[in-house]
Write a structure and sequence with these properties.
It comes from Lentinula raphanica. The protein is α/β, with parallel strands linked by helices. It folds into 3 domains: 72 residues, Phosphatidylinositol 3-kinase Catalytic Subunit, Chain A, domain 1 (Ubiquitin-like (UB roll)), CATH 3.10.20; 156 residues, no CATH class; 41 residues, no CATH class. Helix content is 45%, strand content 14%.
Length: 299
């Protein structure tokens, strides 16, 4: 029985007999991919091996000669990385508990909760080194990780992610993102299909909000849709609050930035001559005048 197994863009050919068990197949795949057998999930002809016992033969499992199989699973190296992150988190939590047990110190906190900042974040950023420009991919992952609006929703809804990494265009080409084990790992399609650049930041961030929703809800049901919409609104509204002179249109999640003409009417509040002078000035001068007027109104 000749089988072809695809895993993360790599293809493996195996020769087995129909009487071999799924356990034998899982063992061979573990040797080839470093993915532990218990974490392997085989997809073929609309079926999955997850619900089958390892003692079931390949023939009984519905596998046939020449069949193509898609394998999902996390490698041992990635598991070690997540374990290291968890160990580091537990170490930090232990230090925080020890400090708390000693009572107040002379140091004053400048944040809301340092332990929360440590927990509810992306614990590791991992670009794919075998793809072009891994440094640029890391910069994009770092930008997402440091995005104030994303950090806000992660703190608010207590989202923690072990690894934030890439989803290569050839890996699950039908997907823009993937959440593994409710936040153990989130993969995002950062690159264009032809590997000639990176996707627009805001589009990638929307996919990230989608995958963060899977930390709570696995299926794309109404619960998922409501939380996903809420996260996108939270991101848009957070950004609108930190942008001086920006208005939010209800709860649509769309941010409205007034034009120069609108700003003259809405925020400057001066005479007609002041509006005309704004239009005659340079773009930088107009922005400065509008900003000053908005700050004055807010005060």
């Amino acid at each position: 029985m000749e089988l072809t197994v695809s895993h993360r863009g790599q293809t493996y050919s195996l020769s087995l007999i129909p009487e071999d068990t799924l356990g034998v197949l899982h063992t061979k795949l573990e040797e080839l991919t470093a993915t532990p057998a218990p974490l392997q999930k085989l997809l073929y002809k609309g079926k999955s091996s997850r619900a089958l016992d390892d003692q079931v033969t390949l023939q009984e499992a519905g596998l046939k000669d020449g069949m193509k199989i898609q394998m999902l699973g996390t490698t041992a190296k990635e598991i070690d990385g997540v374990k290291a992150v968890e160990d580091d988190k537990q170490k930090r939590e232990r230090i925080m508990r020890e400090r708390a047990s000693k009572g107040p110190t002379k140091l004053r906190s400048t944040g809301s909760s340092s332990s929360n900042d440590l927990n509810y974040r992306f614990h590791k950023l991992l670009p794919l080194e075998h793809l072009p420009n891994p440094s640029s991919a890391l910069d994009l992952l770092q930008r997402l990780s440091d995005d104030p609006a994303i950090r806000h929703v992660m703190q608010k809804y207590k989202f923690a992610v072990g690894i934030l990494t890439e989803l290569a265009p050839h890996e699950h080409p039908e997907l823009l993102g993937l959440n593994v084990n409710a936040g153990q790992q989130i993969k995002l399609r950062l690159r264009t299909d032809r590997y000639d650049g990176f996707r627009a930041y805001r589009e990638v961030r929307k996919v990230l909000c989608h995958e963060l929703t899977h930390n709570v809800w696995g299926d794309h049901d109404n619960n998922f849709k409501e939380l996903n919409s809420l996260l996108n609104r939270e991101v848009a509204e957070y950004e609108s609050r930190v942008k001086t002179g920006t208005n939010v249109l209800g709860y649509s999640g769309e941010v409205y930035e007034p034009s120069v003409e609108d700003s003259c009417l809405q925020t400057v509040g001066g005479s007609e001559s002041s509006a005309v002078s704004l239009l005659e000035d340079s773009a930088e001068d107009r922005r400065r005048r509008i900003l000053e007027a908005v700050e004055k109104r807010l005060r």
